[in-house]
Design brief:
6-stranded antiparallel beta sheet; two-stranded antiparallel ribbon; about 110 residues
């Protein structure tokens, strides 16, 4: 898969600022999750923000970063997005959605 996946509490990920995952909440979660490690830094409005690295089941590495109330997942991986990132979405009480609006659920992909 080669486009972004989003973890968001909003009905549509591009509306994430209306029902945000706060930056403080994300940083706390990411720092406490042993599957994530700081893989780089991005410049934010206030300060540098960490970009977290995650190694998928197929061995590929993706990045997770906070942006405007949602978590962006970027990178190439061969697996099922829900199997890879569903736990993160559940833990954050959020949805897992692709760029085209499709939702990844335990019961399969729901069209956008």
């Amino acid at each position: 898969m080669g486009y972004e996946i989003h973890i968001s509490r909003a009905e549509e990920y591009y509306d994430s600022e209306a029902r945000p995952i706060t930056l403080a909440e994300w940083l706390s979660y990411a720092e406490s999750n042993s599957a994530l490690s700081v893989g780089g830094w991005a410049e934010g409005d206030e300060d540098r923000m960490p970009i977290y690295a995650y190694t998928c089941k197929d061995g590929s590495e993706v990045s997770l970063s906070w942006f405007e109330g949602a978590i962006r997942i970027k990178g190439y991986f061969a697996g099922d997005p829900y199997q890879e990132f569903g736990t993160f979405a559940i833990d954050l009480q959020a949805n897992l959605q692709g760029d085209d609006g499709e939702r990844y659920t335990p019961n399969g992909v729901l069209p956008g």
